[in-house]
């Protein structure tokens, strides 16, 4: 049975990834931070005891990430999906950046944590058949497509994540590991808002179709949920 580990699995895109991969017959490792905000995930785990394993994980906690890697070191993981992220809604507009501690936390979650996850779980990914690492980026991580400004911290954190994806792709290619950034589209979730044009089911379905086609020739790419290549 193929296996995928998903961070930020308790809601939104992460929860839908869990649902669709379970339906496709995969074993899913779902990571969540706050049990109180994870009722839907726990209800799903009660139904899918044999195929859904839950892990409490705060991606701001480096020791917790290392412990997870140690716990799973003998378990092949076909896909490591670094999905957890924050939008920094209070750091959008020019002149709003006064709390550097908050801004740094956004970078820790959106940019540094995925790198730490790769370091901790690399052995498990390398043992698998698919050998795929996905970093959840955003259209806002594309410098070329920034025509509206604002969203300073969020944009920068996702652009930096894309740079990490590219370096990982270069460094891990010799080990047969594929690394990509993925844009899920503007999705109707708590983060995306009700005005977003894309529903979460369609976004995840599209990403799964792209993921099925991805191989080592795709490594270092920035791909959209619709299969298109995103400009850096």
TrEMBL record:
Signal peptide positions on this chain: none
MF (Gene Ontology): oxidoreductase activity, acting on the CH-OH group of donors, NAD or NADP as acceptor
Entry keyword Manganese: no
Broadest EC class assigned to this enzyme: oxidoreductase
Native source species: Coxiella burnetii (strain RSA 493 / Nine Mile phase I)
Top-level taxonomic group: Bacteria
EC number of this enzyme: 1.-.-.-
Protein name in the entry: Short chain dehydrogenase
Similarity field: Belongs to the short-chain dehydrogenases/reductases (SDR) family.
Keyword annotations: Oxidoreductase
Gene3D superfamilies, A to Z: NAD(P)-binding Rossmann-like Domain
PANTHER family: SHORT CHAIN DEHYDROGENASE, SHORT-CHAIN DEHYDROGENASE/REDUCTASE SDR
Family annotation (InterPro entries): NAD(P)-bd_dom_sf, SDR_enzymes, SDR_fam
């Amino acid at each position: 049975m193929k296996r995928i580990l998903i961070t930020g699995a308790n809601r939104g895109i992460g929860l839908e990834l869990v649902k669709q991969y379970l339906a496709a017959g995969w074993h899913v490792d779902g990571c969540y931070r706050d049990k109180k905000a994870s009722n839907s995930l726990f209800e799903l785990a009660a139904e899918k005891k044999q195929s859904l394993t839950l892990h409490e994980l705060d991606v701001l906690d480096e020791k917790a990430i290392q412990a997870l890697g140690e716990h799973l070191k003998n378990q092949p993981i076909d896909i490591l999906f670094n999905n957890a992220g924050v939008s920094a809604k209070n750091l959008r507009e020019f002149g709003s950046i006064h709390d550097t501690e908050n801004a740094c936390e956004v970078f820790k979650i959106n940019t540094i944590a995925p790198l730490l996850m790769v370091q901790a779980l690399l052995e498990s990914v390398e043992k698998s058949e698919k050998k795929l690492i996905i970093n959840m980026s955003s259209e806002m991580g594309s410098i070329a497509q920034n025509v509206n400004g604002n969203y300073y911290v969020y944009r920068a954190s996702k652009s930096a994540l894309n740079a990490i994806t590219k370096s990982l792709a270069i460094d891990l290619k010799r080990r047969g590991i594929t690394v990509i950034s993925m844009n899920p589209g503007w999705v109707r979730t708590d983060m995306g808002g009700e005005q977003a044009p894309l529903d979460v089911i369609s976004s995840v379905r599209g990403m799964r179709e792209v993921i099925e086609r991805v191989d080592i020739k795709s490594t270092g790419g920035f791909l959209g949920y619709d299969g298109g290549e995103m400009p850096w």
